[in-house]
Design goal:
It contains nine helices and eight strands. The chain is α/β, with parallel strands linked by helices. It has a single domain, classed as Rossmann fold (3-Layer(aba) Sandwich). Strands 2-5-4-3-1-6-7-8 form an eight-stranded mixed β-sheet. α8 links the parallel β6 and β7. The longest helix has 18 residues. The radius of gyration is 17 Å and the shape is globular.
Length: 224
């Protein structure tokens, strides 16, 4: 059974976050008039900062504002593909590409585990050569319409570890039989980092850098 190399995506593999850039990219592609609603996004962010809404609701509201409450997957597909190409060309840490290639050569199963939406992450993961994706799901109707509602957990913080463990159970991967590497930039991923056999703090936030120093986790910079 192959060992696992599990990667966070935003600001770990990528230089910057992808969620809001994707929504803006899709808005321009699907209906540029929706960009007139972009000034509302700071208000949803303020509501989140004030703890009036949670992160899950924040993501749902911003999706509703910028690409609509219900979009056919087929209509969204060209924007997903063009965004994935843009990310590969402009927004990947060079060190991430080297590490992905090294883990692949070592025979590890490559898993991308991210809070971003599966419906656009899969296109990025495919281009990077990942074997599996664990991401935030969207409610999709029988006619394959993507709704601005999260299906299941928002894959963030402690939920990410729960979803990784659920995926391992589904894949019949015995935790005791594999060695797990986990790469992340942010302290919110500490449950998965603490659970991993080989935790890596990548381009770490201040909070994660402090935690890594206390716990003896390896710190690496993929920006070079």
């Amino acid at each position: 059974m192959a060992d696992l190399a599990i990667y966070d995506m935003d600001r770990t593999v990528t230089r910057t976050g992808t969620y809001t850039p994707f929504l803006l990219h899709a808005a321009r592609a699907l209906n540029p008039l929706r960009l007139a609603l972009a000034p509302m996004v700071p208000f949803t962010m303020a509501a989140y900062a004030a703890k009036l809404i949670d992160r899950r609701r924040l993501k749902e509201l911003n999706q509703w504002l910028l690409i609509g409450g219900a979009v056919p997957r087929a209509r969204l597909h060209p924007a997903v593909e063009s965004f994935a190409e843009l990310v590969l060309k402009t927004n990947i840490h060079p060190g991430a590409l080297r590490q992905i290639a090294e883990d692949r050569r070592a025979g590890r199963r490559l898993v991308l585990a991210t809070a971003s939406y599966r419906f656009y992450v899969e296109a990025i993961a495919e281009r990077l050569g990942f074997d599996d994706v664990i991401a935030t799901g969207s409610v999709a109707g029988l006619d394959d319409i993507i709704h601005a509602r999260i299906d299941g957990d928002n894959n963030y913080g402690p939920a990410k570890l729960r979803l990784i463990e659920a995926w391992m159970e589904e894949q019949r991967i015995d935790r005791a039989s594999v060695k797990v590497r986990f790469y992340s930039d942010h302290v919110s991923d500490w449950p998965a980092l603490a659970w991993a056999d080989e935790p890596f703090a990548v381009n770490p936030s201040r909070g994660l850098r402090h935690m890594a120093a206390k716990r003896g986790w390896q710190v690496v910079d993929w920006g070079m």
